Amino acid sequence: MTIEKVELQINDGIIDTPHLIDDVEILQRRLKDWGLLPKDAKIDGLLGLSLRQQWNNFNGCVLLIKANLSQAD
Predict the structure, then answer these.
(1) Rounded distance, CA 63 to CA 38, Å?
(2) Cβ atoms of 68 and 47 closer than 8 Å
(3) Which domain range does residue 47 map to?
(4) Which of 42, 46, 62, 70 could form a disulfide with 13 if both were Cys (CB 3.0 to 4.6 A apart)?
(5) Total domain count for the chain?
(6) CA separation (Å) from 33 to 15, 29, 44, 70?
(7) What is the pLDDT of residue 72?
(8) Contact at 8 Å (CB) between 55 and 31?
């Protein structure tokens, strides 16, 4: 199984990139499951500013965890 890396950008899933709707929906579901999106957040497959901000927050948390783990060694 090959995993393709997709770099999502603001407005993906809209007009010029409808083929990315499924990828954006996966991201939305994961962030919602992890509590980074509100429970009532709409899963619409459209990447807007709010979703992008939450993704950046998630990435920041991952970097902090990695930094703390590397300091523990």
Answers:
(1) 22
(2) no
(3) 18-35+43-72
(4) 46
(5) 1
(6) 27, 6, 15, 27
(7) 66
(8) yes
21-33 helix and 49-72 helix, angle to the nearest 10 degrees: 60
Q: Quote the CA–CA distance of 57 and 14 in Å, as a whole number.
A: 23
pLDDT (tens digit, 9 = 90+) per residue, 57-67? 888 877 777 77
The CA-based dihedral angle spanning residues 61, 64, 69, 73, taken in that order and rounded to the nearest 10 degrees: 170
Given pLDDT bands bounded at 50, 70 and 90, which one contains residue 73? low
Give the separation between CA 23 and CA 47, rounded to whole angstroms.
10
Confirm whether 55 is domain-assigned: yes
Helices (H), 1-73: 21-33, 49-72
The answer to the question of residue 1 being in a domain is no
